[in-house]
Each structure stands twice: as structure tokens, then as C-alpha cells.
Specification:
The structure holds two protein chains of two kinds. Chain A is about 40% helix and about 30% strand. The C terminus of chain A is likely disordered. The termini of chain B are far apart. Classes of the chains: A alpha/beta, B alpha/beta.
């Protein structure tokens, strides 16, 4: 897995790429918690995620909870089909804010 | 996760022969299970399926033949390489095999605490996630003695899934469960294959369950494979032993009078 950080509007976008698995998810978690700790609104871009396991999903849940505590915005964007299947397995597609794009976020929320 | 080559079997068994003492229980068995496939292994009691199950897990060595799991011949591996293979395998045993002194959450978390360096919060979320997936949310603090048979089975499955294995073995998922829980487990097995791209081997007696979930079914009798095929191929098999199993007909075996008397009197064959 690798990742890229970019800014879009008010959001810090953490774009994850490749396999977010037991070996690599601690890196993703570290980035998510770091930017939320810096009081940034965070979007995690999962468009190029080929595989995500439960440790990766756990990092997203932790980010979501932390954002709620800090009254920050947190969501997922461009979720790839493999990642969406794993989210659906745990019914998290009904819980986590999921958006198709950041630019039209308010309009295309598919929660 | 390495993308599996769909042509390279996740499990490849060649010319497997196994004895208990003098008695041959597996006789020249060949079987391949492909990545992303749900394979149901069926057979009468004493057919050899539990022995085969134990051998696929590396718990019993065969007399001869080979078993390759995720590309590795498990009977020639050193302990470190075998450990690497086992980290990629999840096993849900029939009776649960839970630690009675640990809570449900502690049982489910155990593989992560033993085999990873993940932080405590991630481990806790992962175990609760798996308990959600098996419909056991809120049971984290119960002890195994406080659970029903169906709940024990689901905790065992949650523990088997906690490392997100590439290969899942599930021994008798439906045995002793009510029809609703059994149907939910069947559905979950299919979802796991689809979402996690798992290869799943299910040992089962339940025809209905096997027909619902399996991509292919293998029926074993007396240590031999009677048939390996799709649900339709198995249903329409012309093999009378297969049809006996499907139609729950008792076996009618030829009686060798001399051998029978020898067995009763303890005379040498």
C-alpha cells in the first residue's frame, strides 16, 4: 500500500492505494489520526484500493469516531468495488459517510 | 494481499494415502480447490472426511502423497514456513474449540494478539466487527459456557475470520443449528467468498446447505472420492453410492462370510 495527501477545498484527502491489509493498515491509521489530531476535516479516498481487510476498516471506524468527538468532518470518497464489498459485509456502508466525489459531496451523498 | 492465480489451486492434494495403524482410511485421493471457490466435502460417518480435514490443516501426516496449501507442500515445510502458511488459514472447528476461561471477545482477539503487533484499539474494533458480521454484537463479555451451540459456532467463525484468512476451513457449520441460523450462516459463507475473495472448504453432512453454498462438491466414501463436481453434476450423478447419499439410503454392503466370522472370533485373516 502507498498513500498520497492532497487538499481539496476544506478537506485533507488521504488517498490510499493498493492493499490495505494487516501489514499496511497501521500506516493508514497513523495518517488518518494525525490529520484529525491536527483538527483537519478528512476524506479517505479509496478509489485505488484493491483490497482492504478488517484492520483497514478498523482504522476508518476509529477515524470516524475521533472526528465525531472533535466535531470534524470525516468520510470516504470514490470507494472501489472491492472496498465497498467489505464495507457492505459489515453493514458499514449504512454507517460511514460515503461520497462519489468531493466536489459534489453535499449533493451526491449516498449514505 | 497477493492476487491469487485462479489457475493455481489454493489446495492441491495428490495421491494421498493415510493409515490408522494397519487400517487404510484414505486411499489414493486427488483433489484441487481453486482460489475463490467454496468446496463442500461430504461423506458418511467414517468416510475419511475428518481425517482429510486434519491433514489439510497439517495436523496429521499422510502415509504417502502430497498436500499443497497456498502453493506450499505442507508436509515438507519447516516450522517457520508452516507458521507462515497457518497465518493465512482460518479454521472454525465443529465444537467451537474456544477457551472456556476467556470471554467471547478475548477468544476472538487471541490470534491478533498472538500473531500481530496491531494496537489495542484496532484489535478491539476488529473483534467487534467480526462479532457484528456473525450477528453476535453485545456478546463480547460472555463466557463460552453462557452461549448456545449456535452462538459457540458463530464465535468460532468470528475467531477463524479475525485475521482475514485467504483460506477458511469450516467443519460442520450447520450441524445442530436451527434452520434460520443455519441459513444465515450459509449466506454469510457466500458473502465472505464474494467480499473477501476467500477460498472456503466446508465439511458438512447437510445436503441442503451444500447445494446452496458450494461451487463444487466432493463426496468421499471409504477413503476414496466418489465424485467431485458442480451441484448439478453431483445431483445427476449415475453413481449409485452418490445417489444413496443424496437420497439418504442405508448402505447395503456385500457380506464376506469368512471375513465376518474371522472378525467376530478374532481369528487371523
Amino acid at each position: 500500500m502507498n498513500y498520497q495527501i492532497r487538499t481539496e477545498g476544506q478537506y485533507t484527502v488521504i488517498a490510499l492505494r493498493g492493499d490495505v491489509d494487516l501489514h499496511h493498515s497501521p500506516k493508514a491509521r497513523e495518517q488518518i489520526l494525525k490529520y484529525l489530531g491536527d483538527q483537519c476535516h478528512v476524506m479517505v479516498d479509496l478509489a485505488d484500493v484493491a483490497y482492504i481487510d478488517s484492520s483497514g476498516i478498523a482504522s476508518l471506524i476509529e477515524g470516524f469516531q475521533l472526528a465525531k468527538q472533535h466535531k470534524l468532518q470525516f468520510g470516504l470518497v470514490g470507494v472501489s468495488e472491492p472496498a465497498m464489498q467489505v464495507l457492505k459485509l459489515a453493514r458499514l456502508d449504512r454507517v460511514l459517510p460515503i461520497h462519489q466525489t468531493i466536489s459534489g459531496m453535499a449533493l451526491v451523498s449516498i449514505r | 494481499m497477493t492476487i491469487d492465480n485462479p489457475r493455481e489451486p489454493a489446495i492441491e492434494i495428490r495421491d494421498l494415502v493415510t493409515h490408522y495403524g494397519e487400517r487404510k482410511v484414505i486411499d489414493g485421493l486427488n483433489l484441487s480447490v481453486y482460489p475463490g471457490e467454496i468446496m463442500a466435502i461430504m461423506g458418511f460417518s467414517g468416510s475419511g472426511k475428518t481425517t482429510l480435514f486434519r491433514q489439510m490443516l497439517g495436523l496429521k501426516k499422510p502415509t504417502s502423497g502430497s498436500i499443497r496449501i497456498l502453493g506450499k507442500d505442507i508436509n515438507t515445510l519447516n516450522s517457520k514456513d508452516m507458521y507462515d502458511v497457518r497465518r493465512q488459514i482460518g479454521v472454525a472447528f465443529q465444537g467451537g474449540a474456544l477457551f472456556s476461561s476467556l470471554t467471547v471477545a478475548e477468544n476472538v482477539e487471541l490470534p491478533l494478539r498472538e500473531h500481530t503487533k496491531l494496537n489495542n484499539q484496532t484489535i478491539r474494533i476488529m473483534s467487534r466487527l467480526k462479532l457484528e458480521v456473525v450477528n453476535l454484537s453485545g456478546c463480547e463479555n460472555l463466557k463460552p459456557s453462557e452461549l448456545s451451540g449456535g452462538m459457540l459456532k458463530r464465535v468460532a467463525l468470528a475467531r477463524a475470520l479475525i485475521m482475514d484468512p485467504r483460506l477458511l476451513f469450516f467443519d460442520e457449520p450447520s450441524a445442530g443449528l436451527d434452520p434460520i441460523v443455519s441459513a444465515e450462516l450459509d449466506e454469510l459463507i457466500i458473502q465472505l467468498r464474494d467480499a473477501m475473495k476467500m477460498t472456503i472448504v466446508v465439511i458438512t453432512h447437510e445436503l441442503h446447505s451444500a447445494f446452496k453454498i458450494a461451487d463444487r462438491i466432493t463426496i468421499i466414501d471409504k477413503g476414496e472420492i466418489l465424485i467431485t463436481g458442480t451441484v448439478d453434476e453431483v445431483r445427476h450423478s449415475s453413481n449409485p453410492r452418490v445417489q444413496n447419499m443424496l437420497n439418504r439410503k442405508p448402505r447395503e454392503e456385500r457380506v464376506d462370510a469368512d471375513a465376518y466370522m474371522d472378525r467376530l472370533t478374532g481369528a487371523a485373516p
